[in-house]
Design goal:
Elements: E1 3-6, E2 9-12, H1 16-27, E3 32-35, E4 49-50, H2 52-60, H3 64-67, E5 73-75, E6 77-82, E7 85-91, E8 102-104, H4 107-118, E9 124-127, E10 131-138, E11 141-149, E12 152-157, E13 161-163, H5 170-175, E14 180-181, E15 186-194, E16 204-208, E17 211-217, E18 221-229, H6 233-239, H7 241-251, E19 269-271, E20 276-277, E21 282-283, E22 286-288, E23 294-295, H8 303-324, H9 329-363, H10 371-378, H11 384-391
Helix pairs in contact: 1-4, 1-8, 8-9
Length: 406
């Protein structure tokens, strides 16, 4: 027989959207259960770019000083190479924020920080090893979640369920919400390479004829993203691990010899890139946010920060109604109205870059830098434009909930 618990809000998924929303709701006095299917947050090869907009939220919560004590590196600029042109793509040093940089922080540290802070509120309940498998419905309204746990089946009864379970969301599938696919011309291979003293100290992107490589500085190692044409993984594997190592070393000469650290394909993880969104984010008693509502391309590393912004907007709109015990479709639509525009604009930019930059680079044997990139090197002020788009996003959110319980 299933164990049954009741709460005011059940959040399926302990990623950035779910953990931030759970923390903010508990801080505002709402009883909330967060279901996370894994035993911990140690999933490698996840995004770890904490943008200035998210750091600003930490400041508004009074948590920035403690947050920045976590292991991280600061990237005040984003640099790279396009063909033979060395360039700076974005300069965050002029943003109107306290932190004028991207914090490169392992996502598990970010999530553990939110979990630790959330547990300081009596209404915060994080259940690990609890995988949402189905929705509970009565009279056309979602009223809870079924989950598998090591102790058996669990039923969480709640007047509101929030799907934060990512781009392969079980919640949105079980709710029957339609998904609009926007497409992506590439997939990404993730791997890590050691980073000894003397290596460059900044995150960089390399756009070279036929290949793209992004290198994220993580202290003692590089986390690398090697972009391949969509659906070409079997062809890449067929060519062999040695061919892959050679291709990476040609892109990054100072990696020569180090790629021997990649012994086999088990050390290379495939990220299948998808860009999609829900035309409707909600049903009666149910809301989807983050990647469950709008899966983002890894371009710009904006996915985490959009998910966090969704969570802040949802908490601002829903916290008081949840405390009062009444959340209707009008309020859920308000969340979508607030956040659909930023997600839509960001996806349009990503799709444009995918089709006009990524696809071109992967198909060309010789690259000529676009005029805009050349102008950015001659007129540094232009670098502030992508910095603002990346660093703050479209319609950044601010903390509007009041701390009510401790």
């Amino acid at each position: 027989m299933a164990q049954i618990i009741a709460t005011q809000c059940c959040i399926a998924g302990g990623g950035p959207a779910g953990m931030m929303l759970g923390f903010l709701l508990a801080r505002a006095g709402v009883d909330v259960v967060v279901l996370e299917k894994h035993a911990d947050f140690l999933r490698d090869f996840r995004g770890d770019t904490i943008h200035p907009s998210t750091l600003e939220l930490m400041h508004e919560l009074g948590l920035l000083e403690a947050f920045l004590k976590l292991p991280h590196s600061a990237a005040p600029t984003v640099s790279g190479r396009y063909g033979d042109l060395e360039l700076t793509i974005a300069d965050f040093r002029y943003l109107p924020t306290r932190c004028k940089y991207i914090a490169m922080m392992p996502q598990w540290d970010f999530l553990n920080f939110l979990a630790e802070r959330g547990r300081r509120y009596r209404g915060f309940h994080l259940l690990m090893n609890a995988e949402a498998t189905d929705l509970i419905e009565q009279g056309g309204r979602i009223c809870g979640v079924r989950a598998n746990t090591p102790d058996g089946e669990l039923e969480v009864q709640a007047p509101l369920v929030v799907g934060c379970d990512g781009r392969h969301s079980t919640v949105r599938e079980k709710a029957g919400l339609a998904v609009k696919t926007l497409g992506a011309p590439m997939d990404v291979l993730w791997f890590r390479v050691s980073r000894p003293a003397g290596d460059p100290e900044e995150t960089m992107g390399l756009f070279l004829p036929g290949r793209i490589l992004v290198m994220i500085e993580r202290g003692t190692y590089w986390q690398c993203a090697y972009v391949i044409p969509k659906g070409s993984i079997e062809n890449v594997r067929r060519q062999g691990i040695e061919s892959f190592r050679t291709a990476v070393e040609r892109a990054v000469p100072f990696f020569k010899g180090r790629m021997r650290e990649i012994k086999d394909w088990n050390q290379v993880k495939l990220l299948t890139v998808a860009v999609d969104r829900l035309p409707l984010w909600h049903r009666a008693g149910l809301l989807c946010i983050g990647d469950a509502a709008h899966a983002m391309s890894p371009i710009g590393g904006v996915g985490i920060n959009l998910a966090v912004q969704d969570a802040v907007a949802a908490a601002n709109i829903l916290a008081e109604p949840l405390r009062a015990g009444s959340v209707d479709d009008v309020l859920l639509q308000q969340v979508q109205d607030r956040r659909a525009f930023p997600a839509r604009v960001t996806q349009r930019v990503q799709v444009f870059l995918q089709n006009n930059v990524i696809r071109t680079v992967l198909a060309q044997s010789k690259l000529k830098p676009p005029l805009l990139l050349r102008l950015m090197q001659h007129f540094p002020i232009l670098r502030r434009i992508p910095a603002r788009v990346l660093g703050l996003g479209v319609r950044p959110e601010h903390i509007g909930t009041v701390e009510r319980s401790g």
